[in-house]
């Protein structure tokens, strides 16, 4: 497996780096992390992302990269994930990790760093002196006055490797109060572009609707072609919508201007936190807030009544998050407080097509 391309592996490695303080061995105990905490830290929160993460974890275990500890009496569920001591060197090689030598540590302590990097003298880092020097040279040469560009472009300029800055972004270099990618390196993470289907011409002035999962996006797209309720139906792709929300500007340009942004996702802790976090990002990018499409959530609550599925990650649910659903907040909280979730796929294409044209939507 190409570990740097596996989200759960990338987050696990970043946490292992911080815990080990830039050293591979000797250690007395393997590094481990609770499964639910790791998913939350990696922002793998949607049902699809969680399923993909579990699939990746099982594959990593088969390859000898990790060990998985199951929940007691529920062996099909993961409780903890750990990196065996014997696999640490292999992990380091997979991510291009080279612990600094004693000579490099001396150079780091004695080098004349720019103020933005002065903390590296005392910090426990796992970044080679040569890379720190490249960052320092960029800042020293007036990099802070350059325009903001995608992080992969800046990474290629600095290191000759377009992925290196993404990896460093999870390291101790970018902890709060240290380096900032926008301020110091003048770059930013660019989310995955959003897939979308334009509504019929009669709906050009209507709001757009963002759907969390692929199957429901397909169904709403077909239904909207028939009913013309939304100017566009956008595929949020789970957690990727949070960083990808910036691309709504492109969709609005195609549609001829901004309009309300409505959202419909799974009824679980993650499904509600995604639009809340996306709405916070929307404000940064000058976009409208993300609002719930209440009819869809009302249908989900009606169709899913008595069909809630127990969800191990339900502990992350918060009553205040449900306030986003307005008049439906109480009923939604009842589902989450019971440790259950409702998949948005309950609102199927067959159901949508059964709604009378005269019914309010």
Task: Describe the protein's architecture and organization.
The protein is α/β, with parallel strands linked by helices. It folds into 3 domains: 97 residues, Arc Repressor Mutant, subunit A; 91 residues, no CATH class; 160 residues, 3-Layer(aba) Sandwich (Dna Topoisomerase Vi A Subunit, Chain: A, domain 2), CATH 3.40.1360. Helix content is 42%, strand content 13%. A 5-stranded mixed β-sheet has the order 6-8-7-9-10. Strand 9, helix 12 and strand 10 form a beta-alpha-beta unit. The radius of gyration is 23 Å and the shape is globular. The two termini are 46 Å apart. 34% of the residues are buried.
Mean pLDDT: 88
CATH class of the largest domain: Alpha Beta
Series of H and E elements: HEHHEEHHHEHHEEEHEHHEHEHEHHEH
Number of helices: 16
Radius of gyration: 23 Å
List the keywords:
alpha/beta, 12 strands, 361 residues, Arc Repressor Mutant, subunit A
Short structural summary:
Helix content is 42%, strand content 13%. With 361 residues, the protein is an alpha/beta fold. The longest helix is centred in the first third of the chain and has 16 residues, at 47-62.
List the helices and strands and how they pair.
Layout: H1 7-20, E1 31-34, H2 35-41, H3 47-62, E2 67-71, E3 74-83, H4 88-94, H5 102-110, H6 129-140, E4 149-150, H7 151-159, H8 164-168, E5 187-188, E6 195-198, E7 208-211, H9 214-227, E8 232-235, H10 240-244, H11 248-255, E9 261-264, H12 269-284, E10 290-292, H13 294-303, E11 309-310, H14 319-322, H15 329-337, E12 340-341, H16 349-354
Parallel strand pairs: 4-5, 7-8, 7-9, 9-10
Antiparallel strand pairs: 1-3, 2-3, 6-8, 11-12
């Amino acid at each position: 497996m190409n570990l740097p391309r596996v989200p759960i592996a990338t987050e696990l490695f970043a946490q292992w780096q911080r815990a080990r303080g830039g050293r591979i061995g000797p250690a007395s105990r393997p590094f481990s992390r609770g499964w639910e905490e790791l998913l939350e830290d990696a922002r793998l929160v949607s049902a699809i992302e969680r399923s993909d993460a579990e699939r990746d974890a099982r594959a990593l275990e088969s390859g000898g990269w990790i060990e998985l500890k199951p929940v007691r009496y529920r062996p099909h569920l993961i409780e903890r994930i750990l990196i065996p001591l014997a696999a640490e060197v292999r992990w380091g090689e997979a991510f291009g990790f080279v612990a600094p030598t004693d000579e490099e540590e001396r150079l780091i302590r004695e080098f004349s760093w720019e103020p933005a990097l002065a903390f590296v003298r005392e910090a426990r880092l796992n970044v080679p002196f040569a890379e720190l020097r490249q960052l320092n040279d960029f800042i020293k040469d007036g990099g802070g006055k350059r325009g903001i560009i995608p992080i992969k472009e800046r990474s290629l300029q600095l290191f000759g490797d377009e992925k290196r800055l993404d990896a460093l972004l999870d390291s101790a270099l970018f902890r709060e109060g240290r380096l900032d990618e926008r301020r110091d390196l003048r770059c930013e993470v660019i989310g995955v572009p959003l897939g979308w289907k334009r509504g019929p011409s009669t709906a050009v002035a209507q709001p757009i609707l963002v759907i969390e999962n692929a199957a429901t996006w397909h169904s709403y797209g077909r239904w909207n072609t028939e009913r013309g309720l939304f100017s566009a139906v956008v595929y949020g792709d789970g957690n990727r919508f949070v960083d990808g929300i910036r691309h709504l500007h492109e969709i609005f340009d195609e549609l001829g201007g901004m309009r309300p942004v409505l959202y419909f996702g799974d009824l679980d802790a993650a499904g509600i936190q995604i639009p809340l976090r996306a709405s916070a990002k929307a404000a940064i990018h000058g976009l409208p807030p993300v609002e719930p499409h209440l009819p869809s959530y009302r249908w989900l609550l009606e169709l899913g009544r008595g069909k809630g599925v127990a969800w191990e990650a339900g502990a992350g649910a918060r009553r205040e998050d449900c306030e986003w659903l307005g008049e439906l907040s109480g009923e939604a909280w009842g589902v989450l407080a019971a440790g259950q979730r409702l998949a948005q796929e309950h609102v199927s294409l067959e159901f949508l097509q059964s709604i009378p044209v005269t019914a309010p939507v």
